[in-house]
Structures
1.
Amino acid sequence: MSKRPEEFRLDAGFWKVTGVLGIISALLMIGVAVFPIDSVLREASSVSTSIDFLFRFMAFFSVPIIVFVNGYIIYFAVRYRRRKDEPIASVGSPIHDHRALENTWMVVPTILMVVLGVLSYLAIPQYYLRGKDSAATLEAIGHTFYFEFRYPGLSHSVDEDLYLPVGVPVTIDLTSAEADEHLAVIHSFWVPEFRVKQDMIPGMIVPIHFTPTLIGKYDLICTEFCGVGHSEMRGHVLVVSRADFDAWYAGQQKSAAAKGARTIKLAAGNVSSGQAIFSQKCTACHNAAPFDQRKVGPGLENLFHDPAHPNLVDGKPANAADVAWILEHGFQGSMGAMPNQQANGLSSKDIADLIAYLQTLK
Ligand code: CUA
């Protein structure tokens, strides 16, 4: 004898729970609608508002789904639990097929997904395309483990900090690259206040387009796990007035001219300050010990005097000028990555001091 369907009708308890879940949903949905996102995370670019709208839309309709699905799971688990007098192998009520219910939970989320898709399709090209109104196209290159920026008209690149003038539409071509292309990894360019987040992919150039709308200093974060230095891979975006930007840019042009004429005076290095810098900046990756006593990179005790390793990791002879080159530009090899001068925060004087110190080791 099969039981009559009446026994499985949803009872008064179900409708009470439905009412409570409805009220919780409504309150949370109002909360989502009025929540001031901007006061928690400032909207600092032209795309922030539309991204926040998408986020709000998604959160608004996710609330009832989360509340009802989980609310019913808890309610049904309690309401239809196995009673003490029931055999341990007893099966639950054989409820199945409720056409109206099934259609509802397929059709409503489908409509929501389609609407979200259309809204995203309208919003995302605003910044995932090369803007026709761009004042300039910059390049941002992810390296292990720092960001490099190139500006039109500047012969050198700028590391770590990205300067942008407020109110000026800009396109940034994103990619990832290393001297040895096999060692390039995926990074991700994320500026939370801009609501811009895009992977930097080796061999691929992805343009993003936006206008910074608020003067300020914002975190630039690599948000793709890219290796041992991932957590260190942070920079800043400095959004400044047009006048400040022009002044900074002119300064960069001047310093580039000065750099062209500059040579590091290697002979003037100071051994004891070199030793201090070494213990501050180098010992995380290098021992002052023989070559084979590696941390990340080789031991540097015999750097200039090791018959077993007459060449540096870049294959060049172990002389002061070539060591200085590695300190300045960094190096990426089979042992790992060494950041460049700017990422390590080394001045030219520091490099000369370090070399003076390393030359005394034997
Ligand atoms: Cu680069 Cu994480």
Note: Confidence is low (pLDDT under 50) at residues 1-6.
2.
Amino acid sequence: MTDNTNTKAIQSLDAQHHLHPFTNTGALNKKGPMVIDRAEGVYLWDSEGNKILDGMAGLWCVNMGYGRKELADAAYQQMQQLPYYNTFFQTTHAPAAELAKEIASVTPGDLNHIFFAGSGSEAIDTIIRMVRQYWNIEGKPYKNILISRENAYHGSTVGGTSLGGMGGMHGQGGPLLPGIERICQPYWYGEGGDLSEEAFGLKCAQALEEKILAVGPDNVAAFVAEPIQGAGGVIVPPANYWAEIQRICKKYDVLLACDEVICGFGRTGSWFGSDTLGITPDIMSMAKGLSSGYLPISAVAVGDRISNAFIEHDDDFNHGFTYSGHPASAAVALANIKLMKKENIVEYVGKDIGPYLQKKLRDTLGDHPLVGHIEGMGLVAGIALVKDKETKEGFGDDIDIGMICRDHCFENGLIMRAVGSRMILSPPLVISHAEVDELVEKALLCFNLTLKSVS
Ligand code: PXG
């Protein structure tokens, strides 16, 4: 018999004192959360000893997998030598300086300068303030409107919430930040109607031009978007979308900011989603995979145009965080990038395990009665669950098909995330072929159970 005394004790403490993020805590307290106890490779173990395949790499972040001694050692050594010092007041330290160089060595184009922060949301807030200040330095303080997309996720600070396009977030904790406009997301399967993928890609990109013209090109600071939307449900844009977006940004001198918090660090099969999709951003945010989630750290990579303006401006940029460039986090991120290079993990995702997962998903699940569409690249995928494959009709509001499926996954030792009726995968990049086979077999089992639940 399983001894669950420890589980109950932790759940009880949790219910008494812990408010969970993005959670109905009251409902969770009644049910009791799963207690995660330890992890190794691509597997988690809960407090009851159940082994679970982590198809989400934590929260899209544990890219190099769990239990990497190199990363723990880097934190331990750095904490002994210099656990903390700031980079505000004319000081720096080796981990921050070396990490900035290391990041600049993998970022695309002329993204040669790095600003550090503690989370993806802080990186996004940094982009908001930095691009506005850039235009201020250029003598155009009125060029301060940011354009983003419906259903985008850019974090949950006030800046991130406002920039994002999540209705459920906008309804809480307002009012939102002014000066933000949104255009449609390039979600062809869900919103393309009768248009071909190409026609829809063009239409969604041209929505940017329409918005710029409506607001006035002289008022628009930047367009901000993820190369592939992650938390929005893994939305891969039509192939022609990004070229047209870039043409429009150039035409109206609108800065292009890529949010690489999920797509960065190998997830799509290149160092950044921008590389995979042929994007040359002026500025980009990154977090999560930067340290494989072992310690919190984020960064904004800044292109020469913007960084030169700040450097030549001869004034302080009044922005930063206590933990900007935190030495232990930076040391771990540095060790993480070195490990990624040593193990050729980006190539492994791009040429080997990424295509393997994508094919396996389509071969195994493509014909499943619940599966309307599978999209993804590298090691990220979104699977649309529908009631009717032909018409794409969904299950409606009464049946939360995503949650039903996610619960079956939990009960069967697989973590998949549900975004509405889309099932999401984003496993650690170190996943092996045998582990991908196991993941997809488990997903099939859970899709079958889900079908039974709603039949
Ligand atoms: N940008 C993007 C693209 C993200 O995915 C953030 C910014 C904010 O990062 P921080 O570190 O502040 O959380 C994110 C974060 C989910 C989920 O349920 C996704 C994220 C965070 C929490 C939950 O898919 N992405």
Note: The longest strand covers residues 111-117.
